[in-house]
Amino acid sequence: MPDTPSASEPTPPSPPAASAGDWAYAPAKDHGLSELERARSYKREAGLISTIGHQCWWAGVRTYLRLYHRLQVIGAEHFPKEPPFILVANHSSHLDAMVLAAPLPMRLRDRIFPVAAADVFFENAPVTLFASLMLNALPMHRANRGRHALKELRERLVGEPCAFILFPEGARSRTGEMLPVKSGIGMIVAESAVPVVPCWLEGCFEAMRPNQKLPRPRKIRMHIGPAERFAGTPNTRDGWDHIAKTLESRIRSLRPG
Amino acid sequence: MPTLASTTLPPMFGFDGSLDDPGVRLLLMVISGLLAAAVLIVGALAASGRVGPEMRSELTKRTLAWAVMAPLVGLPILLGKLPTVLMVTIIGLLCYREFARATGLFRDKTMSALVAVGIVLFNFAALDHWFGLWQALSPLSLIVIAACAILRDQPKGYIQRVGLGVFSVLLFGACLSHLSYFANEPTYRAPLLLLIIAMGMNDVFAFCTGKLIGGPKLRPNTSPGKTISGALGAIALTTTLAVVLGSRVFSGELAALPHLIVMGMLVSIAGILGDLTVSSVKRDVGIKDMGNVIPGHGGVLDRVNSLLLAAPAIFHYVMYFRGLGEGQPTRIFSRLFLG
């Protein structure tokens, strides 16, 4: 199985300069890439300009959600204090990623990566720069490079460590009903102690449906459940399916009413 | 209350009759001639088939890059003081960005912000023609950087952070802003263009004589490509160039032959040392190029490395023997706000 990421393959040890705490003398991991390659790279490291971009964007989003959608967070105590962790939720609106990332602390901003569809957010240059400089998104390739993308995501998650926001359905629901969870999430977390926090987003679909250009001022509620860990789940197809089923039921169980 | 009316300010923008200066006209012709010669030589080498396809594409890339860089740098200088200072500021910030990403200093966002502000302030002081502030900024930036680096309460790595921060602000702020400060002399255009031509040709001379003669390496661990013969050839040829062109560009005392020879050697030697300084940084962190902005050359820092040390060296030589910006209005902007 040469192209399957498996846990028997040891993840490379993280370079010493990964976090500010043990600051050391090492070039950026994305050194030598052009601006666009860097924006699309899983090894991207934020500099001063991107940090300012992330802070401004997310401060703006936070204010907007609070005022326009009266965002209410239920179960915030389930948020892990430090990375690594993954937030997973139902996906039916472009607002979803904004809602999930906005309540997280500002100091973690450079280490929180919404995982976004590569064919939407990393195709043309202006959108790619927006996704990297403002959103701090990482690309998820849905077609042929999916396996590779999941392996890169897994390495970054524990290497840095960082936090991911991702939608395990693999697509936006057009009806508002949750789609079945795909097994890809399993390839990232199987046999790792990284907590996966299930969330249910209520009101995002009503506020901004997939066919809508502008959001409506609907109330949005975010329901957060206790974290799941899959350290004991084998990194095999059966294990991935088990993780997908577990998370799907955990997310659905948070749905009110 | 004084206002920012254009009549009270010395000209900041505009050709300002710069093309009437025979020195400027001569240097513009030299630049065009050199570019044309480069195109012809590369074309001839390619046609003769004496160079491999790899070398040919490398030479073509480099020549094209020169053809783009020449107007990018030359035009702001012709356009006046404000565009010149803006260009130098942008180059300084780009250099810092590459340096910070190469050394890892970019992970310390506070330090990066301080260095960026420092680079802008050095160039503002030059634009403002405020010699006192310009001089004070070196110790002041050391104080601010050393003090702000305490705030994190993380003594581990303190020397590295402060050392790299001060090194960057001095190289890309203090040193490079000497180019900006030149613009306080009304006849700055020709000397500045000459300095940049000499800098570019210094590298070309070193490359060519080194390739032709060969021989022992200059500093093999720092930069395996450079030979002693290349360095000596560059010093001899750059000095000759400075003498030939300098006698038409400089007036008064500095146009004398001894001065021109010393200035030519100064620019050449400082240029080689600046190049080796950046090479040492790259070797230390284990990378080949500082970036890939300029095809065939690498990063911005790989291109302007020879100016880092040469700009202050030549500036203070001119300052000592002739003076710079004397009789020109000082503290042009700051006086309006600070009184």
Layout of strands and helices, then pairs:
The complex is a heterodimer of chains A (257) and B (339).
Chain A: H1 35-40, H2 48-68, E1 72-74, E2 85-89, H3 95-101, E3 112-117, H4 118-121, H5 125-135, E4 138-140, H6 146-159, E5 163-166, H7 184-189, E6 196-202, H8 204-207, E7 221-224, H9 237-253
Parallel strand pairs in A: 1-7, 2-5, 2-6, 3-4, 3-5
Antiparallel strand pairs in A: 6-7
Chain B: H1 22-48, H2 53-79, H3 81-103, H4 109-128, H5 131-148, H6 158-175, H7 177-182, H8 189-213, H9 228-249, H10 257-285, H11 300-321, H12 334-338
List keywords for this structure.
heterodimer, A: 257 residues, alpha/beta, Glycerol-3-phosphate (1)-acyltransferase, 7-stranded mixed sheet, 9 helices, 35% helix, B: 339 residues, mainly alpha, 12 helices, 0% strand, globular, disordered N terminus
Polypeptide structure, described:
With 257 residues, chain A is α/β, with parallel strands linked by helices. Chain A contains 9 helices and 7 strands, in the order ααββαβααβαβαβαβα. A 7-stranded mixed sheet of chain A has the order 1-7-6-2-5-3-4, with helices on both faces. The radius of gyration of chain A is 18 Å and the shape is globular. Chain B is 71% helix and 0% strand. The N terminus of chain B is likely disordered. Chain B has a domain of 105 residues. Chain B has 12 helices and no strands. In chain B, α4 packs antiparallel against α5 and α8 packs across α11.
